[in-house]
Amino acid sequence: METYYLIIVGVLFILAASDLIVGVSNDAVNFLNSAIGSKVAKRHWILLVASAGVLVGSVFSSGMMEVARKGVFRPENFYFSEIMIIFIAVMITDVIVLDFFNTFGLPTSTTVSLVFELLGSAVAVSIFKIMNTETETIANLGNYINSGKALAIISGILSSVIVAFIVGMVVQYIARLLFSFNYHKSLKFVGGIWGGIAMTAITYFIVMKGVKDSTLISKETINYISDHSFSIILYSFLAWTVVFQILISLFKMNVLRFIVLMGTFALALSFAGNDLVNFLGVPMAGLKAYQIHAANPDIAPDTLRMTELAGEVSTNFIYLFIAGLIMVITLWTSRKARTVTDTEVGLARQDSGIERFGSTQFSRIVVRIARHFAERVDKITPRFVRKFVAKQFDTSKAPKYSNPKEAPSFDLVRASVNLVMASILISSATALKLPLSTTYVTFMVAMGTSLSDKAWGRESAVYRITGVITVIAGWFCTAFITFTIAFIIATALFYGKIPAFIILILVAFGLVIKSNFLNRKKEKTEELDEEINDQSIVIKCSNDLRKYLKDSIKVFNRTVDGLTTENRKLLKEVNQEVSELNMEAKNMKYNVFNVLKQLEADSIETGHYYVQVIDYLRELAHSLEFISNPSLQHVENQHKGLTLEQANELKSLSVQLSGLFDDILAMIKNNDYTSVPDAIEKQQEILNNLNKIRKKQVKRIKRGETGTRNSVLYLGLLNEIKNLLLHTINILKSQRDFILNNIE
Predict the structure, then answer these.
(1) Which residues are within 8 A (CB) of 204 and not within 5 positions of it... i.e. 6 or more apart?
(2) How many C-beta atoms surround the C-beta of residue 36 within 10 A?
(3) Domain spans of the chain?
(4) What is the distance, to the nearest Å, from the Cα of residue 212 to the centroid of all Cα atoms in its chain?
(5) What are phi and psi of 200, to 5 degrees?
(6) Which fold has domain 535-743?
(7) Distance of alpha carbon 477 from alpha carbon 483, whole angstroms
(8) pLDDT tens, 298-354?
(9) How far is CA 83 from CA 66, 75, 384, in A?
(10) What is the pTM assigned to this prediction?
(11) Where are the beta strands (DSSP E) in 670-722?
(12) Rounded distance, CA 485 to CA 124, Å?
């Protein structure tokens, strides 16, 4: 058994390394979104600054390690064997759940995950302990679970959501009144004071509050900081203000860039200082438990109480630094981190466009109520106040970008507020030993600032609210999911012992590997998109069209195969593919505005032809939907299948359509449209064939050879194939005009 527990400790640290990787991928959004969204610098410079913050912050994490040991349960009432079950269940659950959220690009809270995993596994083991005794009942669960501390942690995390949102909203409103969207002009007058406030906050809450738990700073220095806090704040504010004002006046320095980069450093430091416990706390507690067991070889694991875990434990600096290095490497290499960052930046961006989330009845009601409330407030507000506020919030005065790709998602004013306010809240919680969720705080601050900044306009508000609700719902799901999975895994380990341990470890690593393979496929697609994006906008439009038409004919042929063979599984797959094509066409439609701006920037005057291409693509997508969906419903409902003659007719149409699409794809690829008349002639041949097939079907109906369901389906398919043909040729003509008129 000695070897068994040593292996468990080793596995705990292996899982910790994996947890660090998936955890950083999720939490990178916390400190990167403002810098990346505002495009304060090139991505590699932003990552360098964040990496420095993570490394420094990892040194200050030791003060939070007690949460994993005694924050949720009472270790003195558990035996060594039971404690190890709790810890291994937590780590397995954490790796699986965080990797799942990362794969789907949803930010979640590593702190909430840790708390509820500890709670779920500890509750499971506690219940089994109680069941094995005759003197205790479920009412004695409080002897094992630190319910008061757990509730305080949970309530603190949830209340931080409201606080962060309100603080972000209020401070951003004040900041916008000071700077307006034409902030370069206002920087001359208030930039020094704003920079002084921001840097004082960062300096005090990060550097000074953070050093309290570091072994690298002497106690005398820490005591001096505590005794002279007010003086340090005052002198820091005066010094930063004077320095920034001089730099602005003499060197025209944009202090907001400096604030955003320093804020990124500060927030990365806060993240490492606050969240490292979520990844390293449990393995370190497991190591300490094993050391206690090794020091008491005469006591059996099932009888050795973990009383020493309830005391103070210092964490070796080397472990913290290695963890920091792993986090930095992940920060630079993880594609999943980009996915999660894109989710939050998309919800906070200033302009409207393609929205990742749809609208719901709840979001529509919220927007309607908010509009009515705003109208009432507007009526009682003095005219001169309304005029001043409207001037400061006039987005038309924001800097213009000829290329939409160069435009940031939001400006440096909002980015500075996001970072400074989130840093203050997180660092304060860290100093008070409160396991605040960096994800909740940074996300809600960003949502509060975007709402206050009028980023949620009438064109995007319902979608943004739906997105926020989806993310928040995911947070609550995190709590339920992690508690349940940890409970189940702890149960399996408690009764299954070594066999269960081996199976669960294999399952955990198998799920992570499978997830990474899926993500690698997604990465290849993204890399292909990036290569295309580096080309001119005209080439990109042509490549997008070719890909869409190629997928469309593939879907049509698969629908014919599925219907003629009554393959329900194939038709279900095809319907999913059609839904994706429909969404892709919808996104192209929403993105038309940005494409037109890029075409205008390149002095291309044929954008109206591109609009026609997209309109016809939408119609093509609808035709495919009206072909695939009725086919699936017909087979699902077990209606009588197609006759042999009908199947052969559809297959012949499929072959003809494939030939036409091949010709069209070749023309688009080679930019050679001399064969358009030939394509129109082929279209007419297929239309003539369609008319003949329709007449045959009418004769079959008269002879009673086909039933009502069969006839309705078949005639409907023929009509949609006709529409598909018409839209396809229209797409070809519009694409020809788009390309040839552009060349001229």
Answers:
(1) 229, 232, 233, 236
(2) 25
(3) 2-523, 535-743
(4) 33
(5) -65, -45
(6) Methane Monooxygenase Hydroxylase; Chain G, domain 1 (1.20.58)
(7) 10
(8) 888 888 888 887 665 556 677 778 888 888 888 887 765 565 566 666 666 766 555
(9) 15, 7, 66
(10) 0.69
(11) none
(12) 11
